[in-house]
Write a structure and sequence with these properties.
Acyl-CoA Binding Protein, Glucose Oxidase, domain 1, 5 domains, eight-stranded parallel β-barrel, 36 helices, binds adenosine-5'-diphosphate, binds magnesium ion
């Protein structure tokens, strides 16, 4: 197997920009070089090598040594320099690069190939001794940190002491001799901490770095990131070795990062930051404040430092041309790293840029309008889950704001929560149910789990392209970065700003759209659903086959659902209506009654209430199907649980307290989930379902009379296991329908069907479909009953189950396609066999989960039903599943 692929200088090893093989970074370096862009020459060691490295027990095959030697020879040939040559040394960077960009991987090592001899050669060939020794000390520092994993604090301290001794404030004040002296200090530090001298052999340096990149694939923080992002552990990372170019060779040199469109708003304008006379990571690390790329951005921000467009107009023009070429080539917004060495532009990276949901929408819609991509591609481009960000409220512009300070609007959305100062606390507090805002001086890959747990992220340092900003945008968390006036003391857990001190636990609000940081909680308003969102939804609806309904049980929910494009109600739970303050007493009287007669009296009081519930819902949903589930939970849920409430309840219901207590203890169940609930209630107390069915039909006819448009009630019987159960329940419903139709002299269309939420029902679906006119897969209960895991108790162990790969994801969030999914397929098949064309839907939590929706599409269900806010997500996911 070939493990090394060269790029640049006209090399073509046939990697063809394959991300799986070369990793994202390597693939695009290869791709850029192939279309003639200026890329420093280099080579990529494939992800397959990484996988083999672990299979073989962390050793390299001999063949790799030969291939790497050939790769180095390639770079030497193109640059005319030699690796390790004391006179004119070749320096390289060693860069990790998985298939997808992955914080948590090894940081890049720059300037590799410097040692006590080659540094002299670099000084001589560049004619700049200071540059050479500065590069050498950077190299030792980076190598010691990321490859040798020594304590980097000691190196920073040594630099600070050197500056203090000389009375300097800035790094730029250090002379060649100062850097040289510091290199001496650094080498001593390495020897102290590592027990060996800093490696002088450039090949040792190189292999050390290569092993460190592969080693970082199994680092804890990389594993955490993979788990959070569903990245398989066996993908591996590639290693890129590339000739160095220098942005730190004076004022005609620079380094920068840019996006071909604004990653925050999606606007079609270049967005970026650069630094003159700087190297590599200086821009993202937030050590110096970067300058704007474009004049327009600088003016908008009112910044003084010249933009690149002004400072280096020719190179900027060249760069702008490259942006165009890259967008046309990759047909997507690109995130780019470049370096200018003495006026010459070099491209160091390009990838599809991370963007906010708002930008993703706008870019997809704009690019389709520009003809760069098709409407269908635009639909495929937007991550349905990311829409969540747009569908949720933003800060009420009219609400008063107690603004503490302003930072950069790094990732939009607003969040309020308690202040926490470290990632572990963020995780802990959020597990306890607190909304938290994670506040850091700056974030690093070690903070990922805390950022994930937080509702919002606030940093004191770093620009729009800082780690915090990039990660937050990717996760859809609001983020304000670079709020420089925050004085954060992470140890003491305090934050001083604007003359005030806040401590851990204090509530703050951040607005990622404006960069404002506010004390206390600020109220929010509903999002705008027109514009790009509307356009994309129209395109999605064109390709979608699955219908999308909502789980909704109040008129308000129904209205929200319709606004979001729901095509019916897939699950209207009726028990919540029973809890309503005005009627819980009648419900309790019904439960406490000792005879059918007593129950009927109480139910008669409930009938008009229940009818008016349905009337309101039917009015909102006129003309659309509404699936109503008859009473499902065990009756004791309606009785008081606290001793203190007993007296009051007994009085209101008109029974003695002893009767109440006795009835409550009679109704007690050891396992209510599998107890007296669902159709089992209808079997024992048919009068309950009779009342509900009557209420449904009376309401439907009322609405038909009033609006001229009848709803289509789909009466759904819960927890059916056998054909006979459904037969009995259907008879009750049909009898009520006939009675109401006769009374009112009018009939309407309706269906009676069942939830499939027990394995027996799925297996006997053929028989059940002889009676039932539709199935709705109640995947919450079906998951519980199939796996035998109670959702309410699973929290304690499900995490370990996912960690250990027993389930790829929480089966209550993402359908267990192999197990529960097979039961659904069986039920669908057997149901269709007896009742061709039987209507099939899903109404569990999974109805709003994109990967579960893809399964529903494959299984040929008719609709999915999701909570109102997830309806647009489901519409888009359904469209993508159909593509
Ligand atoms: P990351 O994935 O963290 O961005 P990179 O490998 O892209 O890591 O490198 C980090 C920084 O170092 C970037 O700013 C990049 O432009 C710079 N860099 C990497 N390789 C070179 C090189 N050969 N010459 C100059 N700068 C480089
Ligand atoms: Mg990079
Ligand atoms: Mg259920």
């Amino acid at each position: 197997t070939k493990y090394v692929y060269r790029f640049g200088g006209g090399a073509d090893d046939g990697g063809n920009g394959d991300k799986n093989l070369l990793g994202g970074k390597g693939a695009n370096l290869d791709g850029m070089a192939a279309i003639g862009l200026p890329v420093p020459p280099g080579f990529t060691i494939t992800t397959e090598m990484c996988t083999r490295y672990y299979v073989d027990g962390e050793v390299f095959p001999d063949s790799l040594r030969e291939e790497v030697a050939t790769g180095i020879a390639h770079i030497e040939g193109v640059t005319g320099k030699s690796f390790g040559d004391a006179a004119d040394p070749l320096l390289v960077s060693v860069r990790s690069g998985a298939r997808v960009s992955m914080p948590g991987m090894m940081d890049t090592v720059l300037n590799l190939g410097l040692n006590d001899q080659t540094v002299e050669g670099l000084a001589a060939t560049s004619g700049d001794e200071r540059f050479a020794w500065d590069s050498y000390r950077r190299f030792i520092q980076m190598y010691s940190d990321v490859v040798l994993e020594l304590d980097h604090g000691a190196f920073e301290e040594a630099l600070e002491i050197a500056k203090e001794d000389q009375g300097y404030h800035l790094d730029t004040e250090l002379s060649a001799a100062d850097w040289k002296a510091l290199v001496g200090e650094y080498k001593k530090l390495v020897e102290q901490q590592w027990g060996k001298p800093f490696p002088q052999d450039v090949h040792d340096q190189l292999w050390g770095a290569i092993a460190a990149v592969f080693g970082s694939w199994q680092a804890d923080r990389a594993k955490v990131y993979r788990r959070l992002n569903d990245i398989p552990g066996d993908w591996g990372t590639a290693v890129n070795v590339q000739a160095m170019v220098f942005g730190n060779m004076g004022d005609t040199s620079a380094t920068g990062v840019a996006f071909t469109r604004d990653p925050s708003t999606g606007e079609n304008t270049y967005y970026g930051e650069y630094l003159i006379n700087a190297q590599g990571e200086d821009v993202v690390a937030g050590i110096r404040t970067p300058q704007y790329l474009t004049l327009a951005a600088r003016e908008r921000a009112g910044a003084k430092a010249l933009s690149m467009e002004e400072a280096m107009p020719e190179t900027y023009a060249e760069l702008a041309k490259v942006f165009q070429i890259l967008e046309t080539h990759y047909r997507d917004m690109q995130d780019i790293e470049f370096t200018v060495q003495q006026g010459k532009l070099w491209m160091l990276q390009t990838r599809s840029g991370k963007r906010t949901a708002k930008a993703a929408l706008k870019i997809a819609v704009d690019m389709a309008a520009e003809g760069l991509i098709t409407e269908e591609e635009a639909v495929a481009r937007v991550d349905p889950s990311a829409l969540d960000q747009l569908l949720h409220p933003t800060l009420d512009p009219k609400a008063p704001r107690d603004v503490l300070t302003k930072g950069l609007p790094a990732s939009p959305g607003a969040a309020s929560g308690i202040l926490v100062f470290d990632a572990d606390t963020a995780e802990k507090r959020s597990e306890l149910g607190d909304a938290v805002i994670l506040v850091r001086i700056e974030t690093s890959p070690e903070d990922i789990h805390g950022m994930h747990a937080a509702k919002g992220i606030l940093t004191a340092r770093g620009g729009m392209t800082s780690h915090a900003a990039v990660v937050a945008r990717g996760m859809g968390r609001p983020c304000v970065s670079g709020a420089g006036s925050l004085a954060i003391d992470a140890k003491a857990k305090t934050l001083r700003v604007a003359g005030r001190e806040l401590v851990e636990g204090d509530i703050i609000t951040i607005d990622g759209a404006t960069g404002e940081v506010m004390a206390g909680e600020v109220p929010t308003v509903q999002p705008e659903l027109a514009g790009d969102f509307g356009t994309l939804m129209v395109w999605a609806d064109k390709v979608r086959r699955l219908k999308v309904r909502a789980n909704a049980e109040t008129p308000l929910d129904c209205r929200t659902a319709r606004e979001f494009g729901a095509e019916g109600v897939g699950l209207c739970r009726t028990e919540h209506m029973f809890f309503d303050a005005g009627r819980i007493t009648s419900v309790r009287q019904m439960i406490l009654a000792d005879s059918e007669k007593g129950r009927r009296e109480a139910l008669a009081k409930l009938l008009p209430e229940q009818r008016s519930d349905f009337t309101e819902i039917f009015e909102v949903m006129a003309g659309l199907p509404v699936t109503i589930r008859l009473l499902d939970p065990p009756l004791h849920e309606f009785l008081p649980h606290e001793e203190v409430d007993f007296e009051e309840v007994a009085k209101a219901a008109g029974v003695g307290i002893e009767t109440l207590k006795q009835r409550a203890s009679e109704l007690h169940e050891f396992n209510p989930m599998l107890g007296h609930r669902g159709c089992r209630l209808g079997v024992t107390y048919p009068e309950i379902y009779e009342m509900q069915a009557r209420a449904i039909f009376e309401a439907a006819i009322d609405v038909a009379d009033k609006t001229g448009e009848a709803p289509i009630p789909e009466v759904m019987i819960p927890l059916v296991a056998t054909r006979r159960e459904l037969e009995l329940m259907k008879a009750i419903v049909d009898a009520q329908a006939q009675a109401v139709f006769a009374e009112r002299g009018k009939t309407i269309e309706y269906l009676v069907g069942t939830m499939i939420e027990l394995p027996r029902a799925a297996l006997k679906a053929g028989e059940i479909a002889e009676v039932g006119e539709f199935f709705s897969f109640g995947t919450n209960d079906l998951t519980q009953t199939t796996i035998g895991i109670s959702r309410d108790d699973a929290g304690r162990f499900l995490g370990s189950y996912v960690d250990k790969g027993i389930f790829p994801r929480d089966p209550f969030v993402s359908l267990d396609i192999e197990g529960v999914g097979e039961l659904i397929q069986i039920a669908a098949e057997r149901g269709r066999a007896t009742r061709p064309g039987i209507k099939l839907g899903i109404c569990g939590e999974h109805g709003g989960d994109p990967s579960s929706i893809a399964f529903c599409e494959q299984t040929g269900l008719d609709y999915v039903s999701a909570s109102p806010y997830r309806v647009p997500i489901a519409r888009l996911a359904a469209a993508q599943a159909a593509l």
